[in-house]
Design a protein that fits this description.
Helix content: 55-70%
Oligomer: single chain
Distance between the termini: 29 Å
């Protein structure tokens, strides 16, 4: 494992951020309860699952290149909706600062070793 930054992860997270910007431009800031957020996330996950099944079980030896591109697009939307949900939570529940790492998080979201 290298000590440097994971450039692929950074690139992916930047793409997710662009998708969040696109979603905000289309829908505006979203505020929902957990059940509504779960329904939105499940719908996006279902679309990603359909693309994954098409890619895996199409039975055609030469799948169109756009099938994998559609899967990537749907996965980006899944990630962006999860981020939107977290943004909604973070705007309603003030984050705390972890003194060891100096990072902010919602109390209880960090795991048993945090000490928050």
């Amino acid at each position: 494992m290298s000590a440097g930054p994971n450039t692929e992860r950074i690139r992916i997270l930047m793409e997710v951020s662009r998708e969040r910007d696109r979603q905000d431009g289309k829908w505006g800031p979203q505020r929902h309860g957990p059940a509504r957020w779960l329904a939105i996330l499940a719908e996006e996950f279902g679309e990603a699952a359909k693309e994954a099944v098409d890619l895996e079980f199409d039975g055609t030896p030469d799948l169109p290149a756009d099938v994998e591109a559609r899967l990537v697009t749907e996965l980006m939307q899944v990630a962006a909706v999860a981020v939107a949900w977290l943004e909604d939570i973070y705007t309603r529940v003030p984050p705390v600062t972890d003194g060891r790492a100096g990072t902010k998080h919602v109390i209880g979201s960090c795991g048993p070793d945090c000490g928050c």
